[in-house]
Model the fold of this input.
Amino acid sequence: MSGPAVARTRAELAGLLAEHRAAGAPVVLVPTMGALHDGHASLMRSARESLGPVGSPAAGALVVSIFVNPLQFGAGEDLDRYPRTLEADLEICAAAGVDVVFAPSVEEVYPGGPPQVVVEPGPLGDVLEGRTRPGHYRGVLTVVAKLFGLVRPDVGVFGQKDYQQLVLIRRMSTDLCLGVEVVGGETRRDDDGLAMSSRNIYLDADERTRALVLSRALHAAQAAAADGAEAALAAAREELAAVDGVDLDYLALTLPDLTALPEGPVAPGTQARILIAAKVGTTRLIDNLPVVLGRSA
Done:
């Protein structure tokens, strides 16, 4: 099985994509920080299917970036211990039909040090994850904007596990007229229901068992949502209360764009999103699910 071409520099990336651009073929980007798992692979496979067979310039190029972005890690977070598994990642990319892997150094992405011009996420960057991790989404949006500029994709594919990130990147692409269609892929879960995450490797056996309450709480809320927002939140809290050793950061129920639900009763069939973040041991996990509030007539 032949693997993807690997670009370490901007010049190498441009050279590898030149043939596809000359053919007028689309380019799809799946940005990652590496330590790839089947959740990432599912995004790649979906992108590959949308482009057509691998190896033909006319079919378009599937690009995966692998870059641990220091700008999105705050003080005391796990930048230094974040797993870096490039050889295994390349095997996953090859199996998914990736054409090009862009795996630059920090100096290649940020020549001269941290950028002086950054992308501010606005008010949405200060709630949920942004409240707990100040500056996190500034770092995320800045690196994604740089990757969009370097790769110049037609489509960017992101997972829905970090739903706030997906909403912000969509808004950035629209507000800044970047011309990139931002697609969200469904969250992949292990057989026990835990959302796939590169950080799951930090969990020992006991912590992993306790971590399963996050997905149970979300599914409980989803099942109770027909009785309204308060019933959905109460069902989630009941599940969480039954498990010790889970340090809840937030449990939030919002509209799909992450704005607040309207006060008072909502119309039957209202689409919403329930989001959760918690620490299990020293590992911080996030998850979310769509919910439909109220009973349809």
